[in-house]
Each structure stands twice: as structure tokens, then as C-alpha cells.
Amino acid sequence: MAPVVRRIYDQMLEPKWAIAMGACSSSMGIFNNYAIVPADKFMPVDVHVPGCPPRPEALMHGILKLRKMIQDDPDLSWRERYGAVGTEEVIEAPAGSAGA
Amino acid sequence: MPDQVGLELIAAALGEAIPGSVLDTEYFRGQASLQVAPSAVRPVLAALRESHGYRALMSVHGVDYYPHEPRLGVHYQLLDMFRVDRIAVKLRVTLDAPSIESVTPDWPTANHQEREVYDMFGVEFEGHPDLRRILMPEDYEGHPQRRDFPLGGEPVLFTHNDATSPGWTR
Amino acid sequence: MSTRADYRRMEDSITLAPLEEQVAAQRGGPTAELLTLNIGPHHPATHGVLRLLVTLEGEVVRDIKPIIGYVHTGIEKTAEDKAYWKVIPVVERMDYLSYYFNAMAFCGAVETLLECEVPKRAQYLRVIHLELNRIMSHLVWLGTSALDLGAMSMFWYCFREREMILDLFEQSSGQRMHTRYFQVGGVIEDIPLGFEAKLREFIAIMPTRVDQYNDLLKRNEILLQRLRNTCTLDEESLLGLGVTGPLLRAAGNPWDLRKAAPYSSYEDFQFKIPVGTVGDNYDRYAVRVAEMKESVKIVEQALDGLPEGPHITADRKIALPPRHELATSMEALIHHFKLVTEGFRVPPGEVYYPIESPRGELGCFVRSDGSAKPARVHMRDPSFVNLQATAAMTRGSYIADLIATLAMLDPILGGIDR
After folding, report:
1. C241 touches chain B (CB under 8 A)
2. Nearest CB to C241; choose among B55, B109, B137
């Protein structure tokens, strides 16, 4: 799932924010085994909503919290926020193709 | 469930029809199971379906008997819906030659389930139409459900731990 | 990073060449053109993280390859690393809409291994929660499926009733989902004061609500056109594909483990098994909606006949001692310590314990090697097996019917990928 989520995230346009919903995507929860990668490992996450599954109130609280964060500092893009400038996914042209 | 006598009768009939197929029988907690030779699994299942009425294959699951040998096991749960009767067919294969005949041509339901056993235990099913990994990515190495495969996982680092392990959150 | 190259390589293993040849032969030459359409893994109509590679000829579906594993969480592996009673919350998270059923299958298998007798009151309490869970699962199915078919308000009506059930679950166990209410040997706590009154309220209201759903949908022309006589599959093929549950009953086979091989005192209750006639999408819809009403009946009977007695087995080697005993009894303290640190040991053996989940036969296979941790836990999840029928059901029908069929199939990806 990690490459899929990362790809979708990279395809989204700025401004963008991410909420990691549930324990698995934040701390791997009760499983913590070979099959799980927490979301922080491959993409920046702004708000973690814990719980397995989170209560509706928790998710609402997370969304409101994110809204507050955006209101406080709407201009900052995530790469600068996380010091991740230069990590953009670049697809190399196949070797030997014209103009490469 | 067939009772203990019924199980022995089935085993005897199978042993007569397919010599050397039934290695052992087990009756445990009211559940009957046959231990069969890995090479005979497809004819045994076909015979159970044709002559004994077990027309539905309910489940296929893999087992790792580590540290006992032969290590890998495959179980088939058969069901007779008319007599409400279940029987398990079990077989064991070694790690060196984890290869048995696929029953997917006879029972289409085994398709995904055999793929799962292949994915998780590395048992190869000859004659399976599409034997690929099903749950893990196709380029994954190893068979996670084997007992000697590490559980994996990693210590969880929270942002308040950034003081002790700096740089993780950025 | 060259994720793109890996992606393409993974897809290479799926070849459509034989299919293209087959169609070309039918059409007398390579005139027909096949289109491969990728649906998912993130798509509202797939009810989870399911990816379908659909081969289309015009608008007609020629083949479907489901690609799964996106939410594989290695639950079976984790279960091998935990003591038996700590496995219950782990297996509950497989099929996230029928958590009581997952727990029931696992607890039943372990109880069979232990030869542990479950008190009658615990069995009845289990039935109440199982059937409420079945209604809840069907409500989510009905809401989301109707949403797929364009009936948006159904979603809100269904979730309104679902909240009532979740409130009941919260009252009895403190959690809305993944409640860990079922224990090996019984249930963790007796139902609290006020639960019965609230449940009676629900029992009174639910049948009329089901009638309201039927009024909204049953004779709705759009729904009828989308569902009736679409994607029919006969009983024989369904059995060959291992399909159980409402899908099989819609095709006319009254196979229901609650009747056929009763577990947890289901033989005490009077209920009918709704059966379809044609095996099309409409029957699949009708069977499930009728099942909700039958489940309400079972809940009512179980509540009326709820026997007095303990709610968990008295065997202190398996069940935790009551809290108040810990302060006065040394033995209780030792049992508590032993259970919490090591857990109980289970005699070696292998059992398979099937129950009837909202989606079909949910079997739990547990192998014990005599230690306090299971040597193998495997769930025969009905969604995982039923998913194989998608291709057989939809081959030759329109792509719009594929969406309807997927909705009526009711796959839960947490259960499929485990």
C-alpha cells in the first residue's frame, strides 16, 4: 500500500495536508509486524488520529485541529515545513532514449 | 462428523481404491481427519467427492510444523452439505521439495486459497492456473507465515522521543 | 526512485493474450479491441482497498482479475506471537464489520481444544451480540450498496440504526467496534443495567425500519432495473467456487450453519432462513434484508429466554477471577497473575471451527502445540473465498452491473487481506 499512497500523495497539488487515521498508520498499533509501514516513514503526516478504529469524535477533532493549523499558517508548504526539499519523485527517462 | 468407525471405513475404502494413499487417521475433539500421501492428494479428494459425498471444499490452509519434519502441511476441509458432515484431509511435505498437485482444476474455490498457501508457506501447487503471490507484493522475498520467518516490526518512535533519536521525524 | 518501473513489472505477470485470441477467434479476426480498465485500489465502489483489472470489450466485461493484499496486516502471524486470550483483539480486526463473529470463531476453536463448557447465559449473550452484529453488518452493506446504486438517503437511514446498535455495544463492553467482549469460556462481563430496556427499544423499532427500507427500495424502478436478472450465477457454480452465506442462499440453497450445525445454542431459537429463487442481484439484496428481520427475532427470543447463571466459565485456569476476589483470595491472585503473564496452556491438537458470519462460513483453524501461544491461527474468511465468484458472475455483463454485483457481493477487504 505504501507506494500507492505515496504516489497519490505526490500526484496531489499543493497546498496539501495529510491525516493518518487509525493506529496502524501512525504507530502500527497492536500488530507491528512484517506487513505494516507507518505513514510517517514514506510521507509527511500533519495530524495523527489514534484509535483502532478512531471514534467519530476523534476524527472530527483531528480535522478541526488540522483546520486550526492551516488557519495559523496557511502559506507554508509541507516540503519546507518538514525540511524535505529535494525529495520529489523524479522518473528517469529510459537509458538510450533520444534526448536523454 | 463421521464417528471413529466411519472414519476408519472411509480410510479403508480409500486405501483400497488408491493403494498407499492414506497414511494415518485421526479423531480429535469430534473432528475426523485423514493423513494422506502428498502425491495422492488429488485422487483422494476426487474419491471423497465421488464416492463419499463430500462435495464442497470449504477451506485450504497451510501449516508449518516447525520444528517437526516434514515441516510444511496443507489441510483441506471437506463438507457434505446433505449429511452436514466434515472431514479434513491433511498432508505433509518437506522444505526441500514443497510441491504437490493442485486441486484447482477440480475445485475452482481452491484457486485463491492455494495461492495464499503458496504466498505464505512456499508450497508449490503443480497445475495451478495462476500461481502467483496473492497477499504480499510480487517482488517480496520469503514466506512470512513460516515459523522461522521473523515477526518483523520496529520500535515505535513518537515525536516526544525526538530528543533521544534526533532526525527521525524530519 | 524508480517506483514506476516496479509497478509495470508487477503488472506484466498478468497476461491477457489468451483472452484476446479467444475474442479474435469469436469475431473471425483481430477486429475486436479489448480495453483493460483499472478500478481501484482507491475507488468508492470497491468498498475498501480492492483493485480490479477489468477487461472490457466495448461496455461488456470479458474478464476480471482481482488484485488484493493492500491492507494485508499479517494478523495470522501476529496471532502466533501472543497468548491465546490476547489473540482475540487481534483476530477481531480481520473482518472489521463482523468483529463478534471473528472472536466467536476463534473462541469456539479454542474452547473445542480445551473441551471447555460455556455457561448457557454466556451462550445467549453471545447470540444477542452476534445477531446485533449481523444486523449492523447488513446495515452498512445496505447503506453503501444503495449509495453505489444512486440511493443516497439510504446511507443515512442505515447509519442511523447502526448508531443504535453501536450504542448498545458500547454499553455492554465500552467500545463501539472491536469490543473484545467474547472471551474463551464466555463473555467478559454481564450486560449492564439498562441494556435490556435499550435493546427492547431497538427490537421494537427495527422491524418497522426494515419495512421502511423495503418501501424505499423494493419497488424502486431504478433499483429493479439495476438488480433484477443481472449477473445471475447458478447454485452448482457457486458451490464449486466455495461461495457460502447470503450469496448461496440467494441461489436457492438453504445452507445456513446456524440451522445445519447449531453452535452457541442456536438450536433454541425459532427463525427462518430467507432463500432466493433466481440467484440474481435482486435476490442477494432481498435475502439480506429479510435476514435482518429474522435476526431481530432471534435477539428478542434470546433476550426473553436469557437464563440466569454465570456469564463465564468457572474454570479459573481459563477465565480471569472476578475483580473483588483478588483482594481476599490468594488463589485468585495466583490465577490472575498466571493468566495475565503466561496465559493458559492448551492441549496440543488441531481444530477447525466454522460459524455463519454475515458473509458466509467463517472458519477458524487453530493448531496448538501445547504451549500458551497458538502455533497457527487461520481464518477461512468468507469474503476472501466469495471474491473469486466476481469474475464468474460478471463475465458477459455490462460494466455498470459489475458495480452493482460488487456491492451485492459485500466483500470486506479487512477480511480478505487479513
Report:
1. yes
2. B109
- Please count the other Cβ atoms lying within 10 Å of the Cβ belonging to residue A54: 19
Reported as a pLDDT band with limits 50, 70 and 90, residue C14 is low
Q: In the complex, which subunits touch B with 3 or more CB pairs below 8 angstroms?
A: A, C
Tell me the per-residue pLDDT of C197-241, one tens digit each, with 9 for 90 and over. 999 999 999 999 999 999 988 888 888 888 888 888 888 888 889
Q: Mind spelling out the 3-state secondary structure of B26-75?
A: EEECCEEEEEECHHHHHHHHHHHHHHHCCCEEEEEEEEECCCCCCCEEEE
What percent of chain C shows pLDDT beyond 90?
33
Please tell me if residue C9 touches chain A, with a CB cutoff of 8 Å.
no
pLDDT-derived band of residue A97, with 50, 70 and 90 as boundaries?
A: low
What is the ipTM for the molecules in this complex? 0.88
Domain ranges (residues) in chain C: 1-67+389-418, 75-386
Classified by CATH at the fold level, domain C75-386 comes out as Cytochrome-c3 Hydrogenase; chain B (1.10.645)
**Measured between CB atoms, does C38 come within 8 Å of chain A?**
no
Interatomic CA distance for residues A50 and A22, integer angstroms:
5
Residue of A nearest to B158 (CA): A27
Query: Would you tell me how many other CB atoms lie within 10 Å of the CB of residue C317?
Result: 13
Span B103-119, mean pLDDT?
Answer: 90
User: Of the candidates C369, C370, C364, which has an alpha carbon nearest to the alpha carbon of residue C352?
Assistant: C364
Q: Whole-angstrom Cα distance, residue A10 to residue A91?
A: 12
